[in-house]
Give the backbone structure.
Amino acid sequence: MASRQAPLCGLVPHCLWLLGVILLMDVSARPANHSSARERAGNKDEREILPPDHLNGVKLEMDGHLNKDFHQEVFLGKDMDGFEEDAEPRRSRRKLMVIFSKVDVNTDRRISAKEMQHWIMEKTAEHFREAIEESKVHFRAVDPDGDGRVSWDEYKVKFLVSKGHNEQEVVEKIRNGEELKVDEETQEVLENLKDRWYQADNPPSDLLLTEDEFLSFLHPEHSRGMLKFMVKEIVRDLDQDGDKRLSLPEFISLPVGTVENQQGQDIDDSWVRDRKKEFEELIDANHDGIVTMAELEDYMDPMNEYNALNEAKQMIAIADENQNHHLEPEEVLKYSEFFTGSKLMDYARNVHEEF
C-alpha cells in the first residue's frame, strides 16, 4: 500500500501547480471590458450601500459599456433566473412558449413589432417596480433615526463601515470635523458619490435625501435629471476631444484592460462590431455621425416608447428567418440563446409539443 501511495503523493504538488496555471490562463483570457449581469458579484453590505453598476432594462452600463443582458432583461423580466444553463431543457422550452403566448396578444401565433414593443415596456416597468422595492429596503438601512431623510454624513458613515472602518470612530471624526484617513481609491469613490448625491438632491439643496431622491441616487433611470447626469458622466469618460459629443471612433474605442491574446482579440473585435452597430442604427438618431448628449439621453431612457419600438423591430429582425416581420414559435426557440441567454436544443422537433 505504501509503495503505491508514494507516487500519488508526489503527483499532488504537480497537479496543484497545473491547476493554478489553468486558472491564471482563464483569468488572463477574460478582458476587463466585457461582463454580464449574471457574472457581477461583490460584498453584500457594499452592494446595498453603493449605487449599482448595472441597471436592469437600461441599454448602457454606468461605465458606458453596452448592457450585454439587455435583450434578455426586456424579454424575460423577472423570469431571467428561470433560464440558467443547467435548467432542464424541456421545462425551459415550455416557459419560453408561455412567454411567447403572453406577448402574442391577438393569439395569431405570431409576434408583431407592436406586440413586442408593448411587452418591452411592460417588462421595463416590472424592473422599475423591483428597483423601487429594493431602494426602500436600502433607504431604511441608511436612515437609522427613521426620520424619512438621509444626510450625506449618515450615508458616508454607512459606506465607510461597509469598507471595514469602525462606525463609532467614523461618527466621532465627522462630528468633530476631523480628517478621515482613507485610501486614495476610497476617497475617489466618495467624491464621485458626493457629486451624485448633490445631483439627486432636488432644489432647494440641503444634502438631505428623501426616499424618492434616494431612489434617484441609486437608480438614475428613475429621474430625468439623474439620467442627464449619468449621460454627462458617460460622455465625459468617452469624449477624447472635449467637444462634449461622441464620434464613432470615440464610442467604439477599446477601454483600458484589453487582453493581448487571441481570445481577447476576438472579444475585442466583437466589442467594436457591437458598438458600431448600436451607434449607427440606434443611438445616432439623425445619422450625422455624431451623438449628442440629447441623443444619448433619449437612447438610454428605458421608458422611451419610440426606442422600445426600434428595439422590438431589431429583436424581431435577429430571428425573423422567413422575413415576414413577425416572430413565430419556431424562430423564438431556434434563437433562444438571444432571447434567454440559454440555447435550447431540438427546437423544430419540440415546437408543436411545447406550444
Remarks:
- The beta strands are 150-151, 208-209, 246-247, 290-291.
- The CA atoms of residues 200 and 213 lie 6 Å apart.
- Residues 50-143+221-253+268-354 form one domain.
